[in-house]
Amino acid sequence: MERPEVYNIDNIAFLLFLFLGTYAFVVIIYRLYLSPLSRFPGPKIAAVTWLYEFYHDAIRGGQYVWEIEKMHLRYGPIIRINPEELHVSDPDFYSILYSQQQKRNKTIIYSKQFGTPDAAIGTVEHHVHRMRRAALNPFFSKAGVYRLESVVQEKVDLMLDKLWEFRESGKLIPLNAMFAAFTNDVVMEYAFARCDNRLEHPDFDALFHEMMLSFSVLCHWTKYMNWILKLGHSIPLWLAKRLDEGMGKIVSFQTSIAHQIQDIQNGTDKSHETVSHKTIFHDILSSNLPESEKRLDRLAQEGQVIVGAGTETTSWALTVAMFHILENPSIRQRLEDELRSVKLNPDNNHDDNHNQKDSPKLSDLERLPYLTACIQECLRLSYGVTSRLARVAPDQVLKIAGYDIPPGTSVAMSSVLIHRDGNIFPEPEKFRPERWLENPRLDRYLVAFSKGSRQCLGINLAYAELYMALGGIFRTFAQREEDEKRLVLYETSSEDVEVVGDMFIPAVKKGFKGVRAVFERI
Description:
Binding site for heme: 456
Strand content: 5-15%
Membrane topology: Single-pass membrane protein
Helix content: 40-55%
Number of strands: 12
Low-confidence stretches: 350-356
Transmembrane segments: 12-34
Structural class: alpha+beta
Keywords: Heme, Iron, Membrane, Metal-binding, Monooxygenase, Oxidoreductase, Transmembrane, Transmembrane helix
């Protein structure tokens, strides 16, 4: 007599289906009714599954930020945006969430989003983050930037030289690519005592810039599928170059950082001996960090973050500033008049033909109120990063709008929503530097660099670039009656600087040709 087949395929499939269905039912019930976050308002589908967020961000291309904005209009200042995260839109809560004094962890899912979980920016635990940042802070402090001001000035002068060449040739100036080359050269020279001289490239090495932007598009996928990054990091340099020229540039850049760190660790790196300063890696390796924190792979992650963060956000802010200043004659005139009044830096060489070395000191530029207002306004409209930045208060109950947020809860806020808040910034879509002069208290609501203990490491360097680049351009190429040519926008409109999506950094419309300018004959 044959034994009956108890475990046939149909039975197994049924049991599996039953198990998965039961599991899904239990998860849904828990998230909707039993979770500590179940009492917070928001769409039920967002509370049940991450797929709602994934659809709007990964599939629709960074659109969840606008959905969150709509949710706040419907549900109020605090909402649940996924099964494990809350979002707050109250601007006065920002300094509480992003506190300088209180413990703030990073939400784990964001830690590995860019493949740099061991860099300071990806560090989850508060105390580990403070330890890692302590080794980096002196290099990027205000005093550190003043000490290496000449590094920034050298790149500003080179950029002005390039603009003179454009003036003579009459060719179009791709401002996006030019500013990306400028900020990339600055941050690499500043941090690594070397750079790839992208300002010297005929097209400002636009392909490298485009690849960095393309990489940001993956951010909403890699947040959930970290294996994509691991696969990318496993590609050897020779293969990357064969597959795609742009990919080859990115992998080559990453490889060069690792090689430089190895040379410094081995004592064979001599690059700093021909320049005025040592690298950030010299500072870290000579710090009192534990030896486990000085591993090659961890330092390489720090280097990649420094360059990535120090290139795109600042270059976009410069691009936004240039567009709005060139588009508004009255703003441009007032800025140029103010820049004419500032004294020159005697440490800089003077060129009687081009006058491009007429560069004031950074400290003098920082005292100019209208230039400062223009910079604040361009930061407001460029947002820094468009991504929400989630924090966890591990041992503190946060209170807002009658709600107690339990310790250990992931809570996020977005610079986009704060900078677009019409209650704080009337006519928020307009570039109006005067608002900062009329109400100095607005400073507390400028969060392009975030705030608190995890504020952007490179804030002082970024401000130096903004002051020195904009100051240099609008002083050198100020409109004069005797000029034969003037710097103007070319086939560029406000749509070209309108942020339409969140790819961690601002995303613009498809088919974007870039903000372009030209020296037009008068």
